[in-house]
Every structure is written in C-alpha cells, then in structure tokens.
Amino acid sequence: MSMEKKKIICYFNAENEAFDSVVNHAKNFETRGADELYLYNYSKLENESDYFLHACREVTRNVDIPVTVGVHVRKLEEIKKAFYTGAKHVIISLDHLLDGTPYDGDDELSKEKREKALDLIKQGVERFGKDAILVEYNAVNEEKNDRVLKIDTLSEELKNIGVYRLMLKHVYISGGVKEKIAASKLPVIIRDSLMRNDMETLISMDNVEGVATNFYEGKDIMAVKRNLKENGINVDLFAFDSNISFKDLKTDDKGLVPVVVQDYKNKEVLMVAYMNEEAFNKTLECGMMTYYSRSRQELWLKGDTSGHFQYVKELRIDCDNDTILAKVEQIGAACHTGNRSCFYRTFLKKEYSETDASTVLKTEYDTIADRKVNPKEGSYTNYLFDKGIDKILKKVGEEATEIIIASKNPDKEEIKYEIADFMYHLMVLMVQRGITWDDVMEELYNREKKQ
User: Fold this and answer.
1) Residue 138, SS3 per DSSP
2) What are the pLDDT digits (tens) for 264-322?
3) Which terminus has fewer CB within 10 Å in the chain: N or C?
4) Buried/exposed code over 14-47 (b: 16+ C-beta within 10 A; e: otherwise)
5) Domain with CATH 3.20.20.70 in the chain
6) What's the pLDDT tens digit per position in 376-434?
7) Pick from 114, 127, 190: nearest CA to 157
8) Burial of 261 per CB tally in 10 Å (0-12, 13-18, 19+)
C-alpha cells in the first residue's frame, strides 16, 4: 500500500446556504478532524457565485486546512476569482463544461465542446500551476459505471495538460472499476455520500488519494481516522499522533505537569493549567485541550460548559521535560472572567519601546481602523477617508514615488522616513478596502509554500 497518507475531505454544497452557514460548517469539519474542505456552488447566476466566493474568502481566513472551491466556470476570469478566495485548489466540473455532450463523443458538437473544455482547463493550469486545478467527472450516465470504465483517455489527456487530480463522483464499486481507477494516469479522489459505499472500501483502493464526503457532518472524524489506522490504512492523525508518551515527562509528586497555553497565531499567553496522564491522553485522542482540575480533582475539557474550546495546533516540551507548551486555537475567552487571557492585569511595568514589526503594524492598523469607525475631529486619517478612494490612491502613489527618489540618495534615514509614510497610507488603503494584515500574510505564506 502507498505510504502517502489518505485524506478525508469534507464537502459542503453551499447553494442556497447563508453566509454564516458556509463558514460554520467549514469550521466544524476542521475541528472534528477533516484533512481538507471542498466547498462548491455551481449556480450559473453571477450574484450567487460572488456571494459564495465571499463566504469562501471568510472560510480560508478562519481555517488552517486546505480549501478546494468549486464554481461554475466558463472563462479564466472565473477560475481567477475562485483562487482569490485563498483556495488551495479549484475544481472544474467537466460535465458542466461539456453541457450534456459525452466526453468521448465522435460527433462534431462533442469534439468542439471537448476541445474548448480542455483549452480552458489548460489555461487554468498554465496560470495557476500544476498543483492547483482538479477536474470533477461524473462516473455514471444511464448505466452504472459506464463512464468510469472509459477514463483511460480522459485521465491521460488531463495529465498531459497538467491537471492535479481527478475527482470521480457517483462511483459504483466493482472489480472492473477498481482496476480502471488503479490504472488512471492521475491520482483519484472519490466523492461519495457514503450512503451506498463505505469509507474503508473507498479509501483503501489503489490510486485513491482520498474520499470527499458530506457524511461526517456533526460526527467525530478523528474517531473514524483512528479506526482506519487500526485497520492498516495510512491516515493523518495530525500532531495527535505523538512521538512521546506521558511517561517521558517529569511530573510533580501528584503526577501532574504544568501546561502553558498560547494562541497559535498571535503568540499571546492565554493561561496555565495542569495535566495528568489521563488528561494528556484524552487531549491527544480528541484534539481538544483537556486538563486536570486540582481544585475539583477531576478531568476538565476546556470549554465543555462555556463553549470556549481550545483546539490543539502544536504541543511542545521544554528542555527539562517538565512543562508543556500548547499552541491552540482559542474559541472565545480563555479566562473564566471573560477576558481573552488570564494574564490581563499588569502589576509592574517599565516603559520600553515596542518595535516588533508585527506588533507595530497591527497597532497602527487597528488605530486607523478605529478612526474609520469612530471619527476624530482634525484627524488626517479621517480626512483621507472622507475624501474617498481616489484621494487615498493618489497619496499611495505619491508616497511610492517619494521612496524611489529617496532611494537615489545615500541617506538611509530619508528612505526609512518615506517608507514609513508609504506604509501608513498603504494601511489606510487596506482599511478602506477591507484588507487585513492577516490577509496579506496568508497570501505571502501561500506563495512561499509553492516555491
């Protein structure tokens, strides 16, 4: 069996779904253990498609697992809009492009539509890369599996133009179908509701990289993965597949080890708690921070009563093996007082300059954003917002030119001054257009991963 880890991909049909519903479903799938998400809305109406893509943008801001987006595509611009959501992959439905004509049809209309479909897919690959485009294909027509049995040519042609993966839906499993999928020139993802087939049968097939399903809504996907792993299927249990056991840790005389809890994104220290062996193992099992309450002398799943769960992103051990650092995604407040962090009170502070780049940029951005919501008389920032986008763009252009002029001179101080001016006006533009530093950093991160 391949050493590649098999993936459970949770899909969600967002047609006629509210914005918050799309985001919440995506988040729930992630926290329950999905490897990837596949969100789609194949409506031909432009306003519905744009609304869906706006929801996808919010999803990619709020989840850390890869997101694949499927929309009705007729031209390259629509593929581009789908990638602008932050999606890792875009799925193109071949059946939608062919519009009812068979892929292997010999008549002139079928040939013309096939040629146009492949050309558009090729444009997408050339523009966004060979690891970016997936093609979805319906495995059945009037007769069960009559199309999946003919995928030899399809998979070869798609591979030749650089398609990343082939997604097959409505697959009826038989010996012949398994052979065809195993022989496909492209790795296959099977999309299935699991009403007829079972996960283990599908995901264990040769050349099947993963299974996309909507079956696990509200279910414990990590439990499914543990069961698959016990049956010899190589799945990803994330950081919960720990390379140390609790016995490797140095505990106090009560069998406890302290845990420092930190926000995985902004590095804020949220709280300190304790784990015993049972809490440690439960955390690894469910992926949610579980502690031992010294006052109540019982196990304590953080958020069990408040809903303020902590989802594990990373666990570290210190040099003495006696303290755990937990990097988590914090839902709501970490502190029982309602404060984000338990460390919200300062009792001693010596003034110092805060020059950390991320802190300074975020503070300045937040100040500008606050000016937009709460105008202050005489504020230059509010003057720019009042004048509108054209004035802001003019100032951004002017400040960029000032950087170029300053860079011709040997004085670094002048260059620093002009860059700071430019950064300020750039942040005014960002606030005006609803772009955050997190959005920009995410885009840079995605580019770095592709290099």
Assistant:
1) strand
2) 988 999 999 999 999 999 999 888 999 999 999 999 999 999 999 999 999 999 999 99
3) C
4) beebeeeebbebbbbbbbbbbbbbbbbbbbeeee
5) 7-236
6) 999 999 999 999 999 999 999 999 999 999 999 888 999 999 999 999 999 999 999 99
7) 114
8) buried
CATH of 7-236 among 3.40.630.30, 3.40.50.1240, 3.40.20.10, 3.20.20.70? 3.20.20.70
Token representation of residue 77: 């611009």
Q: Which fold has domain 359-440?
A: Helix Hairpins (1.10.287)
Summarize pLDDT for 94-123 with one digit per residue, the tens.
Answer: 999 998 888 888 889 989 999 999 999 999
**Which residues of the chain form CATH 1.10.287.1080?**
359-440
Termini Cα distance of the chain: 29
CA distances, 223 to each of 32, 35, 236, 308 (Å):
9, 13, 12, 22
Determine the Cα–Cα distance for residues 37 and 21; give it in Å rounded to an integer.
14
What would the DSSP string read from start to end of 251-319?
P-TTS-EEEEEEETTT--EEEEEEE-HHHHHHHHHHSB-EEEETTTTEEEETTTTTS--EEEEEEEE-T
Task: Give the C-alpha separation, 334 to 344, whole Å.
Answer: 11
The C-alpha angle 2, 202, 131, rounded to 5 degrees, equals 60
Burial of 307 (0-12, 13-18, 19+ CB in 10 A): exposed
